[in-house]
Specification:
- The chain is mainly alpha-helical and 185 residues long.
- The protein is 64% helix and 0% strand.
- The chain is built from 7 helices and no strands.
- The termini are far apart.
Length: 185
């Protein structure tokens, strides 16, 4: 049986390798700055929900002072979970989950297409979840955020699906490098 051609296969010309490398570099830089903003957003949510103050400064290795909310602080993760559930289900259901399986799904089934809104929704929802005390890490979300940025650039600059997937992988790699503080990686 003959494979069915996707309409996108013939509609776009592949971009030159040098241009693709430059675009991957841009995705890496933007994802790195996105990771810094993501960490700051986590700090803002944590400080607002647990300490009642607006500040981006947060160091996970330091003990958080007692909350001004007293015993009601136990409701912070519940409130965070409710808000995260509403945001994700309302604006981008594909932003739910850990992040890595969703990126793999987009690569395998959707030809590397990830809606641009996923980066925004995943950033906000994950920062709310992590900042309000959910037992999750920032690795999966920043991988999905970086991948969404790479996919978005691959959709803006018309290119083949294989090249778009390369930018998705560049975003994922940049997310991993940024979250583990290994910029050369």
């Amino acid at each position: 049986p003959r494979a069915v051609a996707h309409p996108d296969d013939d509609a776009t010309e592949p971009v030159a390798l040098r241009w693709l490398c430059c675009l991957a570099f841009v995705v890496g830089i933007v994802t790195g700055f996105g990771a810094v903003a993501f960490r700051a957003l986590i700090g803002l949510v944590h400080n607002a929900f647990f300490l009642g103050r607006l500040s981006f400064a947060y160091d996970a290795s330091h003990f958080t002072a007692a909350s001004p909310w007293g015993a009601l602080v136990i409701l912070v993760p519940v409130l965070g979970g409710l808000v995260v559930t509403w945001i994700v289900s309302t604006f981008a259901p594909e932003a739910r989950g850990h992040g890595v399986p969703e990126v793999m799904d987009a690569i395998y089934y959707k030809r590397g297409v990830i809606r641009p809104v996923v980066a925004v929704v995943k950033s906000i929802a994950s920062a709310l979840a992590i900042g309000s005390g959910a037992a999750v890490g920032r690795e999966g979300p920043i991988i999905q955020i970086g991948s969404a940025l790479g996919s978005t650039l691959g959709q803006v600059v018309r290119m083949s699906a294989g090249q778009r997937i390369t930018l998705v992988a560049a975003g994922a790699g940049a997310g991993i490098a940024a979250t583990f503080n290994t910029p050369i990686g």
